[in-house]
Amino acid sequence: MPDPVVIDVRPFRSGKQAPDGGGFPLGKLLGFLLLLGLISAAAYACFFFTSRTFVTVETLPKDARVEVRSPGGSSLPVSLKGRSFWAKSRKAYEVLVERRGYLSASTNFSCCAEVEMPIRIHLEEFPWGLLRLDPPIDPSPVVFENGAPVDESFRWEEVGDDLVFSAGEHELEFRLARHFSVLTNIVVPARGETNSVALNFQANWAPVRIATIPPGIVYTNEALPGATTPATLELIEGLHPLTIKEDGYMTLRTQVVVRAGIPLELPVMVLQETNGLIRVSSSPGMANVNLADTFVGQTPITIPAEPNTEHVVLIAKAGFKPARKTVAVSPGKTVGVDVKLEPLEGTIRFQVNPPDAELFVDGTSFGQVPEEMILTAVEHQLRIAREGFKAYEVTLKPRSGFISSIKTDLVSKVVAAGNTASPEIATGGGYPFVPVLSAVFRMGSSRREQGRRSNETLRDIRLSRSFYMGKREVTNAEFRKFKADHHSGSEGEETLNRSAQPVAGVHWRDAARYCNWLSAQDGLPPAYRERGTNVVAVSPMTTGYRLPSEAEWAYCARSDAAGGLLKYPWGEGFPPKEKHGNYGDQSAVDLVAFPIKGYTDGYPATAPPGSFAANRLGLFDMGGNVAEWCHDVYRIYSFTPGKEVTDPLGPGEGSLWSIRGSSYKSAHIRDLRFAFRNYAGKANPDVGFRICRYIE
């Protein structure tokens, strides 16, 4: 910048002296005014060239709009052609540059002492464009990219009828309710420009005409309210189940295949009148019921029956005279049949020594053995016991109108101990045990065995300590002495809660606590201890009552007289032998999806323990009735050839426990095998337990 012009101002002196006392001469006045003008011009030039800067604003694109704001905040006029202005030095300015299709930019600066100052601003293109549906669609479709709904990946907002997207190529899927999706590649321009897309949505439904006689209400799997037939439904393409209901008629269920855009009219469907119901109950319960010649279950039971027809109902139970009733039912109505069965009874005479021994019938004490007793003509488990003597046990079925005799002299335990490794014993409450001697066997199953699961690893086991195994499963009556409010529940209309039925629906922890309770009753050390809310085994294991280990259970269940291992409770082959045990048979058709074909054991749910024959060790229901909790925390073991495991009791602590044996719900080859292993962490309606302890 050129140096400012400096003007030196001096006093003015004229060659002539003014007359004394005269006025101010005109010439002097003119000279003074001229001098004053020269001084002002010089000062203005100095200010102009030293206190302002000529600022030039250059933009790209060149036709951007420029706005300059002065120190006071007001806009300054800027030449659109030259984009220049004079700026005062040491003052702050803001330059704002805008253009449609570009991101706005601004800069702040303060003038310096330079004569000229160029400012260059390069605008960035607006990185989004507009996508327009042409013609517009109402309601708007939902947009997806890469299978995900458009959200944070793009700026998604409405601008009139247009949509804002990031510039570039997109593969978009447009979804509209009740239409097929449209997939298309779209290039969205930059700088806010617009690209149009036309979407041709095709409806994915078709009208379906449905008529019934009489009219009914039809329901589909879609969220549609029920419509009264005849009705035309708009159904999405695909397979649709249809359910048609009408009071007094049987529910009709069918399926229809719908093709989009192709109307469908179904043939007229005729609804059938609702069956009547025959509710049969008996005293005592659990009696077999036949409708005509077909077995339908056990009392109490409700049987659907054809309306307006007479039906013959036969109620029969072992040890009782059968009852026969003829009934007719109306559509949708229920008829009750309640019968009191007349017992068939037989007499049993006892001659027992010592005479003060105690008699147990089916697990219930009747006090000192009487001379005579009348019992129903069914199989009963009789047990005669006295402290210090080996108990006498027998299964007996009295004959109606006849007298049966039982004569026995109880053998003292001392004498019995000389004949066997250990005598049979019982808890103080009468729960019986069978002694089992030490043994070596192979646990698990071969990979070739039909129905095998991966957790049935082969393991060589040595049971070095002899033990007592419970002869049968613990009953509801026995468990309620420990926990009076226990309820085993029911399955469908079948109760599991009778006193003589095995306890079920009990958690492993409560089964272990029951064992400790029994140990306390009989003066034995506990086998378990509480740890917070959990129950864990005592280590080393005591001689108190406990649950059988998996190894003990497997040996007692599977070993046969020849030293081999049984595949099923009845041996080899399938299905089970007639009335061998309580499995998922034809009487449990309402409880089991696919019962064992052609097999009937007479118990839809649980049977009193010991209702079927014992195995070679004298143990009952090792297969069927209820599956059984074992002592072990559940674990999958690896196969180690040549390694023998001695007295395994499983891991010390966990939240899942092993379950062995089949139940009244078991009907599949996989579950009925003795090698089948299951586990759970909660109570189940078909899982109970038996107890065990080491021999001292």
Description:
The protein is mainly β and 696 residues long. The strands form 17 sheets. A 4-stranded antiparallel sheet has the order 3-2-5-6, with no helix packed on it. A 4-stranded mixed sheet has the order 11-12-8-15, with no helix packed on it. The longest helix is centred in the N-terminal third of the chain and has 26 residues, at 26-51.
How many strands?
54
Q: What topology, given as strand order, has the largest sheet?
A: 3-2-5-6
Q: What is the terminal separation in angstroms?
A: 118 Å
Tell me the helix content.
Answer: under 10%
Strand count, sense and barrel status of the largest sheet are: 4 strands, antiparallel
Structural class designation: mainly beta
User: What is the number of helical segments per DSSP (H or I, 4+ residues)?
Assistant: 6
Low-confidence stretches: 1-24, 46-50, 152-159, 414-422
If you average the pLDDT, what whole number results? 84
**Principal-axes shape call:** elongated
Strand content: 35-45%
What is the C-alpha radius of gyration, as a whole number of Å? 50 Å
